[in-house]
Design goal:
Blueprint: E1 7-9, H1 11-20, E2 24-28, H2 32-37, E3 40-41, E4 51-52, E5 56-57, E6 62-63, H3 67-73, E7 81-85, H4 90-101, E8 106-110, H5 129-132, E9 137-138
Parallel strand pairs: 1-8, 2-4, 2-7, 7-8
Antiparallel strand pairs: 3-9, 5-6
Length: 140
């Protein structure tokens, strides 16, 4: 474990952890617009639900100052294994660091995020991330 948070894991490692560990929880920290228009992870095969708490609010991308309490209100306590996911792994890393500093014991950043980085054609979701790995997801 690093000093700041438990570390980075791949989307496949996150998927396996969610399937195998009943206490592991996936927290999607993207904005509501991303959830609605880009899609969200589908955990129904593991009888779990993704927890949705914004790290930053769209469109100005201001940090959610109630993030930690919002997460606690959603039923995610400091003893749970928390896997944090954003678009590409940057916001979720910041969230993992913050939660660890606030007493959450095991916070992982899901590196690659939901869509991953842009490819040569400047498209996301093709080379890395949850979508590119072929993991279950759905879109409104």
């Amino acid at each position: 474990m690093t000093q700041d948070y438990a570390g980075d894991i791949t989307v496949r490692e996150a998927w396996d952890m969610l399937q195998q560990d009943p206490e592991a929880v996936l927290v999607d920290v993207r904005s509501e617009a991303e959830w609605r228009y880009v899609g969200v992870p589908d955990l129904t095969s593991s009888d779990k639900q993704t927890v949705f708490v914004c790290w930053q609010s769209y469109p100005k991308m201001r940090q959610n100052l109630t993030f930690v309490s919002d997460l606690a209100d959603a039923g995610v306590g400091p003893n749970r294994k928390v896997l944090l996911l954003c678009r590409s792994g940057a916001r979720s890393r910041d969230a993992a660091i913050t939660l660890t500093a606030q007493g959450y014991q095991t916070c992982y950043n899901v590196a690659g995020g939901f869509e991953g980085p842009r490819d040569d054609a400047r498209h996301r979701g093709k080379t890395e991330g949850w979508k590119a790995a072929g993991l279950p997801w759905w879109q409104e």
